[in-house]
Design brief:
With about 140 residues, this protein is an alpha/beta fold. It has eight helices and five strands; from the N terminus they run βααβααβααβαβα. It has helices at about 5-15, 20-30, 40-55, 55-70, 80-85, 90-105, 115, 130-135; strands at about 1-5, 35-40, 70-75, 110, 125. α2 (about 20-30) packs across α8 (about 130-135), α3 runs antiparallel to α4 and α5 (about 80-85) crosses α6.
């Protein structure tokens, strides 16, 4: 199963924010190769920016290095940016993520963004807890 991770889920896990247990479990599922986790290239710069502001440069670089090591990285190019303009989604950044997920045949997008969850996305967005329920229902290999 291929899952695109919204930046907020990666940050929840990396920063161990309150209520991030499900996000941490999903990142662990990527580490354990139970799912293929993908982030967009701009998620990497967003992680660095936010982590540097809150935790300092060395922690930010560690978070980027860790993210690069465990997640596949989807490029954000001019085509993706142009295609996102045509998506009927109110949030352009969410539309770019959704276009990238669709281009790479992702099964789901995991997000904590309530507006994204109800947006008309080409790839189904869901909460970490809902995705964990799907994973738990899958037969073991």
């Amino acid at each position: 199963m291929k899952v695109f991770f919204d930046t907020n889920i990666v940050l929840d896990a990396a920063m161990e924010r309150e209520g991030s247990e499900d996000s941490v479990r999903l990142v662990q599922a990527v580490i354990n190769e139970e799912i293929v986790g993908t982030v967009t290239a701009n998620t990497i710069t967003d992680i660095h920016y936010i982590m540097r502001k809150r935790r300092g440069e060395s922690v930010a670089r560690e978070a980027v290095q860790y993210t690069l090591a465990i997640f596949d990285i989807s490029p954000v190019d001019g085509d993706a940016c142009s295609m996102a303009l045509n998506e009927p989604m109110a949030d352009y950044e969410d539309a770019v993520l959704a276009v990238c997920a669709a281009r790479e045949d992702a099964d789901y997008i995991v997000t904590g963004d309530q507006a994204f969850l109800s947006a008309p996305s080409p790839v189904q967005p869901m909460t970490p807890s809902d995705l964990l329920k799907i994973l738990e229902a899958l037969p073991e290999e």
